[in-house]
Amino acid sequence: MKLQSIIKKYLLLLFLVFSVVFLSGCWDRNEVNDLALIMAAGFDKKSDNTIELSVLLYIPKGGGNQQDMNSAGGGGYETMVRSAAGITVADAMARLQEKLPRQIFWGHTDIFLFNEKLAKEGIFEHVDFIMRHPQLRERAQIFVSKQPAKEVLSLMPPLERDLSEVLRELGEHEIGMSITTKELAQMLISDSGDCALPWIQILPPDDKNKPKRTIAYITGTAVFKKDKMIGKIDDMLTRGILWIRDEIRLAVVTVKLPQTKGYISVNLSQAHSKLVPTIENGKWKITLKSETYSDIVQNSTHLNVSDPAVVKSLERQIEQVINNRIELARKKVQKEMKADILGFADAFHRYYPKVWNKEKKRWEEIFPDVEVKYETKCKIRRQGLHS
């Protein structure tokens, strides 16, 4: 018995010794000082039919030429923009790595930019790279820029660390369209295949002697037919599209009631929209049902907004304004651009799967003629402080 006990102890010790060999360790670790952390990336089309990849790099410690750097002013880091061209994005990335002493790391990339010229030729193959790379985030935001992406990334914002911070926060504010890489990929493989991305351009600098001391801001939406950009719409029309897509989050509506002087402004506090399609006698129709809840934030009229009759009249007026905004946006996109960024195809597919499977090849012919109706309900919840 004693001998057996000793043998068991030795076997246990031998097992523990050998198990250490198979334990994971830090042999493959990458120190932050050995990494080139990419915060944003942009894609431009070169004249020789190659793709230029430009990246905004975050440098934890100083170094390099000050002319190529955007100093953070004592924050312990700097940023720089580096570029390389290739026949594909992956090829350009390999060439970019040759120019950098540190290993490229994509795990912190929050922003991707497509230049307008590249967007008009098609973005599918570039989105394919973004979705396949194991380090890239599906929640990174995507924009289309009027100016070259390299030029946009080189800006030095006066308030934020770098341009990636500016665009990330603008996207989170949801004042315009906000699209992630995952959402873009879903739109490209959706029933219509059409998509939309926020459109940005450089804000003119306050100081002409410091042309880079400014930001890029969202000024509308780039509209795509399949993966090719076919045009853009402004901020006002974008708001109408957001209502249809149930993506409206922040909005101020100002109205003028009949036979009164002054205006009343309300702040949207909650909104929900739903597309309800019907097919009757071969006619494709869709109803947009919207509910909004708003708070009065300014009243420059003589009206008493505590009066239920005044509130009722105000609610009807706001509903009309919202419907007018939606109608303008719908006509532009559906009738003129003929791009289904409204989600009509997906709605019909959900409600009428059998009919959709038979008619989906004719969708480009059907979509422009889909009849649209609105059922909008607005409720004023709070009148604010008043005398």
Query: Could you state the order of secondary-structure elements as H and E?
Result: HEEEEHEEHHEHHHEEEHEEEHHHHE
For the residues shown, what is the average pLDDT? 88
Oligomeric status: single chain
Approximately what portion of the residues adopt beta-strand conformation? 25-35%
Q: Please tell me the total number of domains.
A: 2
Output the radius of gyration: 27 Å
Overall shape:
globular
Proportion of helical residues: 25-40%
Which class of secondary structure composition applies to the elements?
A: alpha/beta
**Extended strand count:** 14
Written account of the structure:
This protein has 387 residues and is of the alpha/beta class. It folds into two domains: 33-238, no CATH class; 251-387, 2-Layer Sandwich (GMP Synthetase, Chain A, domain 3). Helix content is 33%, strand content 31%. The chain has twelve helices and 14 strands. The chain has helices at 2-21, 89-98, 116-121, 124-132, 149-153, 163-173, 181-188, 235-244, 308-337, 344-351, 353-359, 363-366, and strands spanning 35-45, 51-59, 69-71, 78-86, 103-105, 111-115, 141-145, 195-202, 216-225, 228-234, 252-255, 264-280, 283-299, 371-382. Strands 1, 2, 3, 4, 5, 6, 7, 8, 9 and 10 form a ten-stranded mixed β-sheet that branches. Strand 12 and strand 13 form a beta hairpin. Helix 4 (124-132) packs across helix 7 and helix 8 crosses helix 9. The longest helix has 30 residues, at 308-337. It starts with a helix and ends in a 5-residue tail after the last strand. The model is unreliable at 62-74 (pLDDT under 50).
